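just leaving the lab so this will be short. what follows is a protein written twice so to speak, once as letters and once as structure tokens for the fold. can you read through it and tell me how you think this chain folds. anything you notice is useful, everything is just below:
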Amino acid sequence: MADPANTTTTRHSDADRGKALLLLVAGACVIGLAPILVRLAEAGPAATGFWRLFFSLPVLATLARRTTGSLDRPSRLDLLAGLAFALDLGFWHYGIANTSVGKATVLTNLTPVVVTALAWIVLKQRPARLFLAAVVLAVGGASIMALAKGVGRVGPNPSLGDALSLFTAVWYSIYLLVVGAARRREAAPQIMFWSSLTGAPLLLGSAVLLGEPVLPTTAAGWTAAVGLGIVHAAGQGSIAAALGRLPPATASVTVLIQPVVATSLGWLLFNELFSAWQGLGAAVALAGVLTAQWASRTRPQAG
């Protein structure tokens, strides 16, 4: 006969995981707006990253105080997350400036391979075989989207943009792993505030050194910059909160929803048209996401 206490605990665990998954999917969809706003912000790539973090700080500070009652001193993990995210934004925004929104976002989110490998090597979390198959499926679909030829705008230097976006996946993988580790001891708003406060001056300094235009030139540009701050607080904040209840490897696959959203918006707003192959790639990537969520119900093997 089943233990009623264990059954109740399992139900609560499944309910918590379901809420975390919904939070993660919502965050990924919100972040899908970010590359569109980057294109509209009118400042340089690194400068746009600075404004994204700068305008998110009041929201994140308010959330952190409501959650913990005060802003505690940052941990080393918070500072490392800020460094990784600053590198992520810098590389990604330069990628967006040189290739299509869809390709930049897809290549940036090829993080499951890196996250799964690092979790396996460093944390000794050997994934289930079905999860590995899901990663292959999701990354394969994303790769089809990236490699397939579009019909509309592709950017001034697609090869450079693709390379920068691909390398961004490394920084984002490190960011997800660090935030996942920090969430064991800290609330998500606390991590988001200190990591954003750490990354903002790094991006501003990079923008100045690279001679970028720092200030948006029109009201529309400032609106896009403020919008990026809201998107960052809501989107990455939701992802950070979900990482407290989901493994980073699962999160890294689920956020592949983001490039589907970004590519669709790029098609609607910037004439970055979907080809039949890119549509197929999006469908395959989403199939991989669903398979990964099913596979993640199986506890990873140790060793």
In short: The chain has a mean pLDDT of 79. The longest strand covers residues 125-126. The chain is about 75% helix and 0% strand.
